[in-house]
Amino acid sequence: MNIEKLLSEDYLLRVICVGQGRTHGTLDSYILKNTRNYCRFFYIISGKMRFVTPGGADLTAQTGDIVYLPNGCEYRGHWFDEGAYTALHFTLTDADGKGVLLSEDICLAYHDDGTVLGIFLALYEAWKIGEPGWELRLKSGFYDIARAILQKAQISDEKTEQSAIHRAILTMEGGFTEDSPDIRTSELARQCAMCESEFRRRFKEETGMPPQRYKNWLRVKKARELMEAGAGVSRAAETVGINDLAYFNKLFHQFFGCSPRDATKKSAL
Torsion angle of alpha carbons 154, 160, 163, 169, nearest 10°? Predict the structure, then answer.
């Protein structure tokens, strides 16, 4: 769902009304295509409801879930038991007056811990009593809800990126042996579904080092472990993919502050 559209100045938002209702047991409903010329944020206050569309979408929402119902969508709804809901009805149009959808199909927009519910209920009261300036009140509250949804989406994206960086690190840690050649930064970025510049930025934020420096750190660390286990300096360097011994000595000194041979002597004491 493209929630950023709600906060864009390129689109005109109109909040029509706020609904609220309750079911007293299992209930089935069927909404025909194009019978409702507005979108909805449908908040499940209590209970559990299933939404099924002819296109194959099948979503079950429960207490605290906000479901996005696009303009004109067709679906079959089923309440499993007693429940309650509230809904914001709105339209979004572009500069030419054409309707804009956040998603082509029904989708789960947000799971609330109770914070956003307070906004929904306050908006319903403002609309029900017709308090002065209720149209502006609804629009302001609607943007508060949109920002909450967007913020959660951004946090989720950051966690996904962190997870991707962690996978990249695991790939790098397994990639410095004679049987497993070095993997390029561009390939790691591709595996993380990021452009290379974004991958480099995120990687440095997570590890404190650029990808290439982190690779070199893994190399010399592994080489030191091999030397402590009895391998010679040249053999350890070759095993981690560094054939230039002078370059290996330089890297080793950068990270450990001594030469490989000095480190081997210290570990033997």
Answer: -90
CA torsion sign, 261 to 263 to 212 to 176? positive
Comparing CA positions, the residue from 70, 72, 76, 69 lying closest to residue 35 is 72
pLDDT tens per residue, range 157-190: 555 556 788 888 888 877 655 444 567 888 888 8
Residue range(s) defining the domain that contains residue 216: 211-268
DSSP assignment letter at 99: B
| The 75-79 sheet, strands edge to edge | 27-31, 75-79, 48-52, 58-62
Residue at token pair 């509230």: 86
Residues 61 and 14 in one domain: yes
Tell me the whole-structure pTM to 2 decimals.
0.58
Tokens 């947000």 appear where?
A: 110
pLDDT value at 120 more than 80: yes
- 188 in the same domain as 65: no
Residue in the structure block whose two tokens are 């508060």: 144
Tokens of 64: 């605290």
